[in-house]
Amino acid sequence: MRVSAIGCTAVTASLLVALAACGGREAAAPSTAASGSGSGECQGQQTTGITDTSIKLGGIYPLSGPASAYGDIPKGIKAYFDYINAEKNGIGGRKVEFVVRDDGYQPPKAVEEARRLVEQEQVFALFQTLGTPSTTATWDYTNQQKVPQVFVATGASKWGSDTAHPWTIGWQPNYISEARVYAQYLKQERPDAKVAVLYQNDDFGKDLLGGFKKAIEGSKITVAAEQSYEVSDPSVDPQMRNLAGSKADVLLNITTPKFGSQALAADAKNTSWNPLHIVNNVAASITVLKPVGFPNVQGVVSSTYYKDPNDPKWKDDPEMMLYYAKMKQYAPDADPTVPYHTFGWAVASSFHKAMEAAKCPTREGLRDAMRALQNVQVDMLLPGVTLNTAADDGFPIESMQLMKFQGERWELFGDVIDTRKEFGPLTN
Fold it and tell me: SS3 of 48, please?
């Protein structure tokens, strides 16, 4: 039976019995806190949202609004958790419950939903809050509450470099690392490139653009024009017309899905301007390109770090075969060829590995585990891409591979680029 949220939030230190009923530290059976590396080490740590048989997670996504294309991600996550619950007895014998909330890509709504998940739903951890603005709005709260905010769905560099928020960590390659990959590509292929940039006017867009500018320092590559847009804008057509006037020979498209489609369509319509079009990873899904028409996006360049369900290269790959089978079984209404579903599967598998690595099945145990990932293999990631973190390194993935759109799908080219090795440690 679920205890009311009002009862839980009104608890004081003197009401220990009520605290136990609300799922506080005393709520878990001693065996839960004691399992792992020893009862002494785990004693007194937070076990809200986790028992010997269950673990409750909360996710916040824009299921509606301008970034609603990302609503496919939790479908892949839920399919993975449904699969391991039914066939693998969950994670360490704990069945996973995944509660998803919609923030419409609005930071104030994200804060509201984070509080609801922590204080009313009593989740063990926030697993995935999507978007740089939403995560920025919530991470002070989650860290004050000492609730793990695991593998947030945004590549902002601050998730890994900030030391004041140890309970929050990213997952995907950060935007500065991604920018380095594009800069390296242009240095090799177009060393005199003049680049026009379309970017979202928030921490996400500024992070990638700033990383790109820094990565081209000392080269002959220049940024010839910049245009920003707001997520509330109806269209980026005016910005694209202004960028076309620069006559730049490269367009760097730093957008979320809705605006990514618009920019690609505007580029295709303008026959007098034919730049090399680089679209950032978060807007590179087939669902972004398809409405534009595949003939209109030939030769577009991007980068990735996980396997594309549309690439025949992975047809006989055991993890991809498992993914297709379990998506059909546990998410029959979802199209498994949509890469955002694959992203969800990959990040859920990564959470599985991190939770298994926790010395204590507690919030503190998960916090520590996600900062101590060493060469962790996740089968849906590209070969050569592994999870690696340390106490002072909160960037799990810093390797990517370039890809070009050919025919009706992305084709990988070149080698996996480990930006740690190629560019050195990331600094802001």
Answer: coil
